[in-house]
Amino acid sequence: MAAPKKGRRPAGGQSRPGRALALILIAMVALTGGMFWSGHTTPRLGIDLAGGTSITLKAKAEPGQKSAVNETNMNTAVGIIERRVNGLGVSEAEVQTQGDENIIVNIPRGTNEKQAREQVGTTAQLYFRPVLAAMPQAAPSAETSGTPTPTPSASGATAGEGSATPTATASTQGRALTEALKAPSPTATASASTSPSVQPEATGTPQATPTPDAATTALEQKFTALNCLDPKQRAAAGQGVKSTEPIVACGEDAPGAWSKYLLGPAEVDGKDVDDAKGVFDQQRGMWIVTMDFTDGGSKKFQSITSKLSQQADPQNRFAIVLDGEVVSAPSVRQTLSASAEISGNFNQQSAQDLGNILSYGALPLTFQTQSVDTVTAALGGDQLEAGLIAGAIGLGLVILYLVVYYRGLSLIAILSLGVSALLTYVLMALLGPAIGFALNLPAVCGAIVAIGITADSFIVYFERIRDELREGRSLRPAVERAWPRARRTILVSDFVSFLAAAVLFIVTVGKVQGFAFTLGLTTLLDIVVVFFFTKPVMTLLARTSFFGNGHPWSGLDPKRLGAKPPLRRTRRATPVATPVDPKEA
Questions:
Q1: Is the pTM higher than 0.85?
Q2: What's the distance, CA 20 to chain centroid?
Q3: Torsion of CA 119, 353, 351, 326, to 10 degrees
Q4: Is the N or the C terminus of the chain less surrounded, counting Cβ atoms within 10 Å?
Q5: What mean pLDDT is predicted for residues 476-493?
């Protein structure tokens, strides 16, 4: 009989199970250490478990757009608000429409919740308008010295030296308005239309179209009457006017110090901004917002700055107007094209917030905040407690079934479930700050469903081993021969579960994605645990006398399984000749 070749292992065999166990042990220690090192030792919770804020926004059309509140614009607004909130790192935020005019925003309690509340309804309509006239207004407590308050310029220098003063502004603004209404704006691009004349409100008596002088007088009176120190007038200034019309607006120069502006038609708008971000200017020691324009925006900006640089102050300045308020009004000394910056009274948070808003675009509609409600976690906590009780009962029943039916093998199953639970918890805690994953009630349901998927993999492997024992093989060969068949079945089953979870994650939105994500994650972990823990442990225990000899409580007793007697070859007895005694012969 030929001797077996050295180094040959049985089909499906695993010669060194200790390597796989060491590998998964190292992974568990590394992940657990990373969890404690990061400081995030618990998973991030969704709004249904942690509480938070629910904001109801009502849409209204922009001036001149009577049918702007439609499904397309509402869906666009939902996408922009969602990107803004997610850009702040707020996890599990929900943005969805309700009816035809309302948008519901649910923000879970946690990091940047306050910033998200401030940004969700900000329209972020950005325009670059040429300055026709400017007048600083000091706070009432400040002594009037006749010196105008400086305003920021593009290069960091102040523009106060050449700004119009209260005594010299009236004639300057009148001339600027007259020029603006008689002809195209001095800074208009080749594609820009001429500045339209102001139309009167409809009345019962027909009226003639006002002359430029009448329009100039109306705007001049509006500009003169504007008091930017009054919050009500300040909020109303710059609102309800088309981008193609001149406006009056307010801008804050310093805390308590404002300037009022008379601005021409918009030359560049926020749609021409490709990217924006808040950065700290080391040279000037201040926070600014830098902007990069699109190709079309660069041409427009180059045209406006080229013509503004040839004007005298304040007509050499352009106002950056955000939602009707002048954020900055820098002066232009040279032609600019590809990029620009917004400087003003920014701190780190306000600069980064404005950059975030401008990066994701302006909302196509104006929104009014209808309600801001605080959502408590009491209801979600009760549901979570009920879900955890149900999960504990289900887990207890699974363990009871394993103990009764598989006896000693249930120890392997319980240890494997423990390893899977530990890996699931650690990964959920790490994925919170990494990708914004938040644990909600559907995600908890997905984790509970995963208990059955994981237990099913153990049962498949155990039954394959028992089948081999019923064929009359001993335990150690049965463990190795059963593995290839069980492995194939486990992989096919987990692939189907993962595919279902992936499809569910792609085609759904909101909380259902939490269920799909958790189900897919635990399915992948099931494969890892079975390959790197369950199989190696089974290989090692098969070498012990308790399992190897088929103890009645091992769950692998050949008699209880109805195993066939082992097939053994018997040698034929060779007849031996009996010597004959000569005497008997």
A1: no
A2: 36
A3: -30
A4: N
A5: 92
